[in-house]
Design goal:
Length: about 450
């Protein structure tokens, strides 16, 4: 038995001060021609003040100086008649700043700038160390691409490969202490250095703080960190500042796919980078789980394809013939009837729809974490008689209890879509978002009825 969220017992640079311009020296004051004999000129003669040619206002008619322009005396201002001589030499001009002050001001400004820059840099480093690669506006604040690079009638796999290979990367991550022990695939999300891959490719390295590298088509390696990951949706967002020059892949829509439509899978199966395989869409809305022991709660509403997918393809793009990513290759069926990545391709592979990738990547970019919706009820997952999902228990203070769901109820539809078993119910719920009000069709005591539940939220 399981529930729609994991249970406790199921642990799933320097700022240079701008140079201060020195104060311009005061121009010597202008003056009238000297009145003393030429043989005894005064020791200091100010030049004439240049002003418009008009009579100085305020002089009475008949004044001996009528029609003259005033001379400028540095102490008494505009005057008429002979100059009054220079000011006493021991008096400094008014407003003069001591010469020693400017070097002090410059040094002080430089010191403040250096200290402020250093403190600001430390604060920035602290923030980015805590949440490397996060973006407050999520997908809206990064440069993604949606326009299809190829025409709608394109049928060339060669053209698809040529467009997508530069955007597909190999992921090398530490696993159980071994550097590069885990290999997978991914694709470039934006021009800011973010890459999408599967959670199970990098989970062990992230928990152990081990090295993770992104390898591009030309073999260039870029150290990466995990921005955030979701075990529930088996998705992770990586960040590498040095990978900002890589070409983003165009994002499409899995909802526009049709069964039988051609698709291309690109990745690094068995460590063979830049491998391209082709096939068709085999089925849509296939509820599956990866089945790995560490990912018991990873249920996906998958796109099924017969394009060859093998271990190492995990996290790589599934692409339509217009060159748009429509899913993330995540799991394959094995001959033993399970789902995982240990066996080779048998023509049954599964990809996470790109719509879910958008939602989860947006949440991770904003906060470093992803949320998934829950109702707060445990349901049976081992039975598959096609009649619905039977509720084993309803947890207190949950949307299920508040909405009137009871133990023993059989949920047959979610928003009008048929539910055949517990896994189908979990996948159907997770196709919505926390806070949405969703309509459930149930059977209770042989009677069909409809109830509405407002979905809760868990992080994971």
């Amino acid at each position: 038995m399981t529930q729609d969220e994991p249970r406790d017992d199921e642990s799933t640079q320097p700022l240079a001060a701008a140079p201060l311009a020195p104060l311009a020296p005061l121009a010597p004051p202008p003056s009238m021609p000297p009145s003393a004999p030429p043989s005894a000129p005064p020791s200091w003669v100010p030049p004439t003040v240049q002003s418009p040619p008009h009579r100085w206002p305020g002089l009475p008619p008949g004044s001996p100086y009528a029609g003259q322009q005033p001379a400028y005396d540095p102490t008494f201002g505009p005057t008429f008649g002979p100059p009054m001589g220079p000011p006493p030499r021991h008096l400094a001009p008014r407003g003069r700043v001591p010469g020693w002050l400017w070097p002090v001001v410059c040094v002080l400004a430089l010191t403040v700038g250096l200290v402020g820059g250093a403190l600001g840099g430390l604060a920035y480093e602290r923030i980015t160390d805590e949440q490397p690669g996060t973006v407050s506006g999520g997908l809206a604040d990064v440069d993604t691409v949606s326009e299809a690079p190829l025409a709608a009638d394109n049928g060339s796999i060669e053209e698809v490969a040529a467009r997508l290979l530069p955007s597909t990367v190999q992921i090398s991550a530490e696993y159980e202490g071994q550097r590069g022990g885990a290999t997978g695939s991914g694709f470039v999300l934006d021009r800011q250095g973010h890459v999408i891959t599967n959670n199970h490719v990098v989970a062990d390295a992230d928990e152990a703080k081990g090295p993770i590298e992104i390898v591009d088509q030309d073999g260039n390696r870029y150290p990466a960190t995990v921005v955030g990951r979701s075990a529930v949706y088996d998705l992770a967002v990586l960040f590498s500042p040095k990978a900002r020059g890589l070409t983003p892949a165009a994002l499409g829509a899995s909802q526009a796919l049709r069964v039988g439509e051609g698709v291309v899978a690109i990745g690094s199966p068995l460590g063979l980078s830049s491998t391209v395989t082709a096939g068709i869409v085999s089925a849509l809305h296939r509820p599956v789980t990866t089945g790995d022991a560490g990912n018991d709660s990873s249920y996906i509403n998958a796109v099924q394809t017969d394009a060859a997918i093998n271990p190492g393809n995990s996290g790589g793009p599934l692409v339509n013939l217009r060159g748009q990513v429509v899913g993330v290759n995540s799991a394959i069926a094995t001959t033993g009837g399970g789902l995982g990545g240990e066996a080779g391709n048998i023509g049954v592979g599964f990809a996470i729809p790109i719509e879910q990738v958008r939602v989860t990547a947006d949440q991770i970019l904003r906060t470093g974490e992803a949320e998934y919706p829950v109702i707060g009820a445990q349901v049976q997952t081992g039975q598959n008689d096609g009649h619905g999902a039977e509720v084993d228990s309803v947890l207190p203070d949950t949307p299920a209890e508040q909405g009137g769901l009871r133990e023993g109820d059989v949920i047959t539809e979610v928003e009008g879509e048929r539910v055949t078993d517990g896994i189908a119910l979990i996948v159907a719920i997770r196709a919505h978002q926390p806070g949405e009000t969703v309509e459930f069709t149930i059977v209770r005591d042989g009677q069909e009825r409809t109830i509405s539940l407002t979905l809760g939220a868990e992080t994971g």
